[in-house]
Amino acid sequence: MAVGNHTFGYLWEPTRTVGLKQTLAEQLALVAERPETFEVQFTTGGFGWVVVRLEGVERDELAELTFEAWRLTAPAALVDRRGDRLPS
Is the pLDDT at 29 greater than 80, yes or no? Predict the structure, then answer.
């Protein structure tokens, strides 16, 4: 998953997991709250990537996490136009 040339997420079908870009604080909070569902993947450029086990998240939660990863990656003008509305 990318916006422009910048990646904000990955899908690994064989393991039924996704990797999503998050803030460092959110990465740590997710892992601390539900380590059976989330794990630290890596950190880079001030961001923390998190592995999400798909069986451990509801569709709405995954949509919010993915949208936040997109917001962290997209150009500011595009984020401003989109606002806080999740894509339908």
Answer: yes
